[in-house]
Amino acid sequence: MRRERTPSATTRGMGIPVPARVRWAVDVLDPAPADRIVEIGGGPGVSAALICDRLTTGHLLAVDRSAVAVRRTTQRNAHHVASGRLDVVQCELDALDGPPDGFDAALTLDVNLFWVRDASRELVVLRRLLRPGGRLHVLYGASGPTGGERVLGIVEEALRRHGFAEVTGRTADAGFGVSARAPG
User: Fold this and answer.
1) pLDDT tens digits for 30-63?
2) Which residues of 59-80 are buried (b: 16+ CB within 10 A; e: fewer)?
């Protein structure tokens, strides 16, 4: 898989480059204006900015275990937080509490736990949080883990084992990953 180094855009006139993998992931997510979305491991908040820019009445919950990432996401997206479109929470995914069936979609980008160890606890949480038929996207940038086909197979199997439907591997120049739907 090739690594794209040229950013395709910047966020909100801030001159912050948007990596191709982030733009691709948000395009795969394809948030509708009223979607309720949870993003796991969003790092510095670049993807949160792109997602929130597409929301009108929708909402994004950005979750990261890193205090630094939470601070950066909150600072970068202060206008989205102030508008009520974005909440940022520091916690591990398996400790995330939220309303059952409360989200239309979930996105992870470059979160390795889904292929490096048993992610059963985390997948139980995501399954509970997603509405029936809600979309889950476990994505990796093109420069992500080596052995993309092996990673896809591990993630696909884990999602199927936890009852997710329409489990589909995907590859693109900017990245690869697995998309699925929560059981209905």
Assistant:
1) 999 999 999 999 999 999 999 999 999 999 999 9
2) bbbbbbeeeebbebbbebbeeb
Closest among 108, 151, 149, 146 to 129, alpha carbons compared: 108
**pTM of whole model > 0.85?**
yes
Measured between alpha carbons, how far is 153 from 83 in angstroms, rounded to an integer? 40
**Measured distance CA(132)–CA(3) in Å, rounded:** 35
C-alpha span between 26 and 175 (Å, rounded): 12
Half-sphere exposure of 72 (CA within 13 A, CB side): 15
Amino acid at 156: E
For residue 124, CA distances in Å to 87, 92, 95, 96 come to: 22, 13, 11, 11
Burial 12-48 (b: 16+ CB within 10 A, else e): eeeeeebbbbbbbbbebbebeeebbbbbbbbbbbbbb
Cα 120 to Cα 10, 65, 147, distances in angstroms: 36, 18, 22
Q: How far apart are the first and last CA of the chain?
A: 34
Q: Which amino acid is at 124?
A: V
Kindly tell me the sign of the dihedral angle through the C-alpha atoms of 165, 138, 146, 148.
Answer: positive
